[in-house]
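I hope you will forgive my troubling you with a question about protein structure. You will find the record immediately after this paragraph.
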Amino acid sequence: MEVIGVIPARWASSRFEGKVLADIHGKPMLQHVWERSKGALLLDDLIIACDDERVAKVAHNFGAKVVMTSKGHLSGSDRISEVVYPLDVRIVVNIQADEPMIRPVMIDEVTRPLLEDTSIFVSTLIKRIEDPEEIKDPNIVKVVIDEDNFALYFSRAVIPYRALNSEIKQLRYYKHLGLYAYTKDFLFTFRNLPPSYLEKIERLEQLRILENGFRIKTVETKFDTIGVDTPEDLEKVRKYWLSGEKL
């Protein structure tokens, strides 16, 4: 098997417990994520990794393949590691359970670099910021990239900083979308790395990769999403769906 998608679906959430089963127009959020992910052309299999029987029961009912995992995992990557450890697979896609507006093409976009270049171990999606308010929002993670589209740094702060004497009139700001693809081997390498200095400061797990000298390939997508971290985010998604607006 070449590519597998895993959706880590944790019941407990400090800001919104049970959000993965929150209703969005007649379906739990997790089902929306699963149905959209199923449309990706490059996935050979798709698994929901959960730690609660309530989530597992709902996922089974809408037809998903489910693997129960330990409740003790601190991150989605740890939960995914437990799922893929016994599997013969080369590439693993980490699909967030709180991204009900994800598009199948986004999964294909983040996967393709690893299929085309064996020197790339991890890739992620970015999108150019169009709303100026998002640039200042610390909940929107910004990323700066090099000429080959590898990440230089991720931050909740405004990067790049615009100096007063800057000759550049139109700055490009990119935000990070939390969709990752990595080789199975690199996933276990990453899991064994201790939390890093900058990761602890910014509270951004991906900085552990950069601090340890590994590279992250970024892929620019034209599509946006609304991640559901709070009940307010959920209402925003519901309104978008009713309005028919396109992100």
In short: The first strand starts at residue 3 and ends at 9. The mean pLDDT is 90. Residues 104-116 form the longest helix (13 residues).
